[in-house]
Write a structure and sequence with these properties.
- By secondary structure, the chain is an alpha+beta fold.
- Helix content is 44%, strand content 24%.
- The chain has 4 domains: 112 residues, PAS domain (Beta-Lactamase, 2-Layer Sandwich), CATH 3.30.450; 121 residues, Beta-Lactamase; 80 residues; 131 residues, Heat Shock Protein 90.
- The longest helix is centred in the middle third of the chain and has 50 residues.
- It is rod-shaped and about 150 Å long.
- The N terminus is likely disordered.
Amino acid sequence: MKNTVSPNTNTPSVESILNTVIDAIIAIDENGIMQSVNPATEKMFGYTSGELIGRNVSMLMPNPYSSEHDQYICNYLRTGQTKIIGIGREVVGKKKDGTIFPLFLGVSEGRREGDKRFFTGVIRDITEMKRYQDDLKKQNEFTATVLNTVRSLVMVLDRQGRIINFNRACEETTGYSFQEVTGKHFWDFFPVFEDKDRTVQNFLVSDPKNFPNHFETYWLTKDGEKRLITWSNSGLFDRKGNLEYVIGTGIDITERRNLEKTVLEITKNEQRRIGQELHDGVAQHLTSTAIVAKLLEKKLARSSAGAAKDAKRVVGLINQAVVQTRELAQGLYALEMQSDDLFYSLKKLAREMEKTFNIQCTFVSNGNFIKIKDESAMHLYRIAREAVNNAVKHGEGKNIWISFDRKGDNEAQLTIENDGKPFVKSGRKQKGLGIHIMRSRAAVLNASLTVEARPKGGAVVRCVVPLTP
C-alpha cells in the first residue's frame, strides 16, 4: 500500500490513508491468504510486507488459534454464522520474534470482481491498555484487601447517599453483606428511627465543604441491636470542586462506652462509700474530740487562763475540721441531682472552694435556665469539681471562674478558668488521671472537652454538651 494522492484533487487517496493509520490493516481471501498489509502491520508484527503477502494469516497467531483459523473460515462460509465478523473482540497475536501480545481485532467482509469474498482485519495493539488494566486491577485488589483487613468500618457513599463501598468490618458489625446494601441509601438501613430524618436532611442539604468531620451516632444492626459508632468523614471532589464521594471511617465504641459507664458507676459508688465514712466515721470522731476538748477548756479555765485559751483555739480548729469534713462528705455522697440543681450546686462548689482553700472562686452565669438531662447535670458538676481541684492542686491558681451558659440553640458550655501556673501543652495527649476522668464523663454525655492555655496564664477547661430537645 503506497502513500499516494488522487490525481487532480487534494484529497488523500484511500491507499495513502491506509499507509498512515496506526492500526494494522490486513486483507485476506477466502482461504486465509494475506493479499495486502499496511506499514503498521509490518511495525506491529516485525515482518516485511514481502514476508506476509501470499502467506496464511494464521502465521500471526499462536497455537491453538493458528491451527484452528482456517476451520473458522470454512465454518463461516458453510453456515453463514459469524463469531467475530462485524463484532470485534480481544484476541492474541504472535510477532516474528515469538512474542505473544494482546490485540483487539475487528473483521469486516467485502466482495470484489468475480463476486469473490475478502476479509479485512483492523488490528490494534492493546498491550499498554492491558498492562494498565492489570495494574489497576492489582491496585483495586490491594485496596480491597487493605479495607477488608483493617478493623475500622469504612463506607464510601456517592453524593446521593448511596453505598458504593462497604468493607468487611461494616459487614461484621451490622450483619448486612455488601451485596445487600450496595447502591442503596445508607439511611434505609442504619440510623435509629429518631435520627433518620435529621440524617437525611444533614446529608442532602448541608454544604459539602462543611460536612461534620467527627461525630458519634448510633447504628442499627440487621438484628435490631444499637451500636455506638464514632465517625471521621472526608470528601472526594471533582476538578470543579463538586463533591463526588464521601468516605466515612468509623470505630465501634459500644463496649468502650459501656466500660466507661461501668467505671464511672463504680467510681460513684466508691465516692458514696467514702463520703458516708467521712460523715459517719471521721466527722463523728472529730465531733466527739471537740466535745472532749470543750470539757478540757472548762476545766483549764479554773486553773490556767492561758491554757484555757489554747484549748478554746483547739476546739475552734476541731469544729472547723468537722464542718469541712461534712462538706467534703456531702460533695462525695450527694451524687444524685436534677437539672434544676446544677446552678445551685456550682454556686455552692465555688463557696466551698473559697472556704477550704482560701482562694477566690466565682460562679458566673447570665441567669437563663438551661434544660439538660439529670444525668448530664451530675456529670457536669463532677467535671467542674475535678477541674477546680486540678486548678488548686496542680495549677496553684488563686482565682478561679466557673460559668455555665447556653452556646447557640442546641448546646451549652461549662467553663472553668484559673490564673495559676502557665499551661504547657505537650505534643502528646494529656494523660493525667483527672483529665482522663473528665474526658470519660464528657464522652458519656456525647460532649466535647478541651483543656487549653489561658492567654494571661493558667488554663481553661471547656465542656460543650448537647441540650435536651
